[in-house]
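User: Hey, quick favor. My workstation is busy. Could you predict this chain's structure for me?
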Amino acid sequence: MSRSGMFQGTSSGGPALKARSAPHRTLRRRMRQLVSPLIAAAVVVALWDAIYLSGWRPGYVLPTPFMVGQRLVGMVSDGKFWVGVSTTLLRATIGFGSAVVVGTCFGMAEISQRAFRATVRSLITGMQTVPSIAWFSFVIFLVGLSEQAILFVVLLGAAPSVANGLISGVDETPVAVIRNARSMGTTGVRLYPFFVIPATLPAYCSGLKGG
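Assistant: No problem, here it is.
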């Protein structure tokens, strides 16, 4: 075989070898992503068990991982676990859904009405800095210890973040977007659904995530 043929074989074999090794690299990367959380969980469980064995707290205060797992299996088998999960998911869905609606309405009101924005923006920002748990005693005083109190706390905790995300997105909308819209004949209220709101989606989604 000539030298040119040897070089051709080497050069043609390089991409083939890379193509064959790509799935192996992907598999190794996925294995590392799976193994790392398992190692972290094992370390936490080992520390937990070591603290129990040290006798720092009695078993009824700090049970072992085995005792907790045994209790969890019992709750899953008799249905209590799933009742708690369904109740929590229902509260989260209703509370966060209400927060999205209220926060979006407040954000749109601040965007469209300058007087409303000047008076309410600082209030919404202040409410966002207050931890949700701080509202709980106030809400209990108003509506009592009930399901409505829990949903109200979720609403107060998430709605300001949603509203501020929408407002920040509008403030950060590039001027070129507005100019291009006006050059195409779009003015007034029609600017918002077709140009401004789509441009605010990154900040709005960030507000949703924060909520």
